[in-house]
Amino acid sequence: MAFCESCGKPVYPLDTVCSNCGTPVKHPVQPVSRPDPVYDSVRSGDIEPPQTSPYAVLGSWSFVGSILLMGLPIAGFIIAIVWASGTTYNLNRRNLARAYLLIIGIFVALYLFIVIIAIALGGSALLLNDIIQ
Length: 133
Description:
- This protein has 133 residues and is mainly alpha-helical.
- It has helices at residues 37-44, 60-70, 75-87, 91-121, 125-132; strands spanning 2-3, 10-11.
- The mean pLDDT is 79.
């Protein structure tokens, strides 16, 4: 973001004068870069990125395999943490692991909330035994 040379307030790209002090704004000229043909074709949907790219599309069976791996009791949670922390090269798999961990966090928070409400309302050991089992 650009700032006014006179008063130092932020100036937006389409402003011709500063909204605070009225000084004419000089925007720096950005160099025109050549378009990247691979990025433009991927963005327009003509071709998929190569499999060696971090933006490579995961196939359906890759998603199924990833979900099955993350579904393992303890090892799957560790795998999800490793993938979510960015050690996987594929960004789709990283985002899948992050979503998986968010869903687990939401369910754990919901479970704890229900248990706390049950304790506050009833508080009996019999009620807690029914909830937990």
